[in-house]
Amino acid sequence: MRAQHRLILPLCVSALVSALLAACGGGAQTSTNAPQAQSLSQQRADAATGTTTFAIASTALSSDAAGVQVQPKFHVAPVVLDTPDDRDAAGSSNSTLSSPHLQAVPESMRQLSTRRLTLERIRAAQAGADGGTVANATAVTTYTPAQIRAAYGLPTLPSAGTALTAAQAAQLGAGQTIYIVDAQSDPNVGAELAAFNQKFGLPTCSQGSYTASTILPLAAASGSACQFYVAAASASGGISNTAPAYDSGWATEIALDVQWAHATAPLARIVLIETADASVNNLSAGIKLANAMGPGVVSMSFGAPEGNWTASANAVFSSSNMSYLAATGDNGEAVQWPAVSPVVLAVGGTTLTYSGSGARSETAWSDTGGGISAYTAAPSYQARGVPGITSTPAARSVADVAFNADPSTGEYLAVISAGSSSVNWLSAGGTSLATPQWAGLVAVANAMRAQAAKSLLGAPHTILYGQIASTPGNYASAFDDVVKGADGACSTCGARTGYDEVTGLGTPNGSSMLSLLSGATIAPMPPSVASATINGQVGVALSFTVSASAPDPLTYSLSGAPSGMAIASTGVVTWSKPVAGTYSVVVTAKDSKTGLSGQGTYQVVISAAVQTPTQAPVTTSPFPIPIVIGNIISGEAGSPLSFGTTVIAMDAVSYSLSGAPAGMSISSTGVVSWSKPVAGTYSIMVTAKDNVTGLSGEGLYAVIVAGSSTGTGGGSGGTGSSGGSSGGSTSSGSLTVTVPPLKGTASVAFTGSITISDPSASNINVSLTGVPLGIQAMPEGTNIVLSWADPVAGSYNFTLQVSDSNGHTVKETVTIVIAN
Fold first, then answer.
1. Which one-letter DSSP state was computed for residue 523?
2. 298 with 405, same domain?
3. What does the alpha-carbon distance between residue 189 and residue 122 come to, in Å, rounded to a whole number?
4. Do 798 and 766 contact (CB within 8 A), yes or no?
5. Strand, helix or coil at 538?
6. What sign has the CA pseudo-torsion 209, 212, 213, 219?
7. pTM over 0.70
8. For the CA atoms of the chain, what is the radius of gyration?
9. 263 lies in the same domain as 341
10. What's the per-residue H, E or C state across 530-576?
11. Are 91 and 548 in contact (CB under 8 A)?
12. Would you say 711 and 791 are in contact if contact means Cβ atoms under 8 Å apart?
């Protein structure tokens, strides 16, 4: 079998940097407005024996672009919010049918600019030096993740620990990766995410970091659990071991991006890429790193005014198997990079009104960015025939789509100041808020497409403008067409029927949008039912309320209940005359519409204490004893593992573990840590004991530790071997190709690399002929990395030829030896 493959790799300031290798097969999405590259799913597919060709071209930024500085696009209402209640902590969706939180803005704070407002500035009550949007409102409305999901029609969240089918997990983004690219650093981002998850009942994320030794592309994301990683980008698009400096503004942006990408796609892997500063040069390096890490969605909540430099900057958006999204800005009528790039989905903002029931209502947010580019030609998808586009445009128009962005109708954000451990809550907005939520939506669509064995979306414009917006029934189903509001006084600055520059095609109707993007039907989620331990006394009437949630009315039943115990239609369990003993009672909640059921186990412990005849019944409502929400945690052997537990309690609690492997411990704050995990699956029972009442609750955590991703075999680099029979370097002029010995063991994952050095070349062509079936070839920096998941014993030869723009050529035979 013969095939031909092509790669485009960028050179920046005479130095090779990594990009994407296209492997066998055709049919990849392409755009005439960006460099061509084939899909990463194809790139990682087994290479057929044939010829693989790499074309390495120069895509250096223009000097005008390299030094341009971008700004984060977040807004924050000028008030520190009351701490949210715990109604969502157990059921994930208990706030769904409630009105959003409304809190007054102190009169002394109303003149603060909301643009890039931080907790520190709110505390200091400083007026915004940058001017801009002022909080004229006397009160701020703030939405929970569950309320946002309900308002936009996204699939309801199940409780943590609920067993999900693969299709249900896909609706939460399982198996997909969202890359958050931001400048500077937020050292508290992990703790902020953990606090956000615990407060709103979102899945816990295992946390880690990537270092310069991390092998790229990354291994596949978990198909069942959230993973959160941080990586510092080097100036060349690799991974640096040095974290960028802290900046309170960018730290707020980082926290917002991570928390709301996770809230929208709660089982997706999130990779935060932090760059050394906010220059276009360094942020482009962060995007290059995302490209090298593998397929997914890149969320960019930053921007700079467009200029004649944007065409060169657009070259970084080179992966056709990556979806790139960017905020349109917060300066009203204006066009910004990277949103203006034709292959980037430009996300504008709205003002949201939602009461907890019925349909949402939206108007264009007055400060959302939008307009017609002065430098970028109109892409083919923005053509006459799209609703609202009545004539053939000459230039690119932004926005493409929109989401809630007004800080006066904001969304909860957990923030921890530098040097502190206290969590504060803010009401966040800006097109910075809209962008990661659209990124989460695209990640979920990709997960659903993967379940249907379809390719990833890549640039979604053609589907959004063509298959959806240009089909009347699809447009009305998938989009809420925002027709009111404006971001300026110009003739095109107002929202109108169909496409407009302020809100693009509109905001998403979640389930319908996902169905059309993925071609799959939304799978209903089962009801979520919390488990708990209930304590009572002989002869004293017992009553407690089951914590359960679902989008539809529920019916309840009990199994294993003692005589006399009953459950009402409201979920209240009663037992008028408890008898001493311990009872395991299973509560089943059935969705009256879908017929799906969820279960929770209540351990009812009745003691034989003597009670007075007039003692009042023991009542437990809504959360009388600690409730520990179980979860599934993923880790890797040898990599330190840490995760927070989710507990709802009336008082402070103490923690303990049972069934934990050697070396695992839990802190007084409920954080479980294991410095040297060992591969395997572990069932860990977390017990939380109320320090005042003495009541205890338990939750089961399934900890799955995979084997180390580090490859085996000898040779240079230690993670594999590569090279010909004897290995070594071959040079021709400035071109040097180094092929160390390639050796491996049958049935043991193999990795090795070939190094190419050519500092004076403007382009390099590499061809691999006769590569054995099963071997994958991917670029990593200046290396060509070869990997074989399940090698077969034998000796294999293929031909390597490297040519550069200076007329130099190196050709040699490479041998891979796989021993039994």
1. P
2. yes
3. 20
4. no
5. coil
6. positive
7. no
8. 28
9. yes
10. CCEEEEEECCCCEEEECCEECCCCEEEEEECCCCCEEECCCCEEEEC
11. yes
12. no
